[in-house]
Amino acid sequence: MKRGLFMDKLDEIFKLQEQLDNDIISRRNLQGIDNYEWIQKEVLAIISELAELLDEVNFKWWKNPKKVNPDALKEEVVDLFHFFISICLKAGLTSDELYELYKLKNLENFRRQRGKSTKKGYFLDADQE
């Protein structure tokens, strides 16, 4: 996890989230919940946070819009990230593994958008050129 004398930012985020998760489990006496149940709970929390994020950007076209608060918007994004990183930890995914898998998937997503993937459904007419 450590690279030289410095810890990578993503490594640090994973470490901080693990500390927070452990503190919550300890303080709230939540030992005994298996990782798969935690993942279920955290997915539900993400859905809730996504709804809060939507509220920040005035998705309700039937209501008068309010001024978007950039700080509140960022806070909701960070809330989502907390739960996402917690899911990574519960799934046994390290920061290094997340990074490597992200790079592979990003490359595949570019292939799909360029019509160079075996995955169906992404072909554009412009790809014939």
Brief characterization of the structure:
This protein has about 130 residues and is mainly α. The chain contains four helices and two strands.
Task: Describe the overall structure.
- This protein is mainly α and 129 residues long.
- The protein has a domain at 9-94: Helix Hairpins (Orthogonal Bundle), CATH 1.10.287.
- The chain has 4 helices and 2 strands; from the N terminus they run ββαααα.
- It has helices at 9-27, 35-56, 70-90, 95-113; strands at 2-3, 6-7.
- A two-stranded antiparallel ribbon has the order 1-2.
- α2 runs antiparallel to α3 (70-90).
- The mean pLDDT is 92.
Strand order in space, largest sheet: 1-2
Report the structural category: mainly alpha
Question: Biggest sheet, open or closed, and with what strands and sense?
Answer: 2 strands, antiparallel
The portion of residues forming beta strands comes to under 5%
The CATH architecture of the domain at 9-94: Orthogonal Bundle
CATH top level of the domain at 9-94 is Mainly Alpha
Mean pLDDT across the residues is 92
- Element-level helix/strand string: EEHHHH
Shape: extended
Output the keywords.
mainly alpha; 4 helices; two-stranded antiparallel sheet
Helices and strands, with pairings:
Elements: E1 2-3, E2 6-7, H1 9-27, H2 35-56, H3 70-90, H4 95-113
Antiparallel strand pairs: 1-2
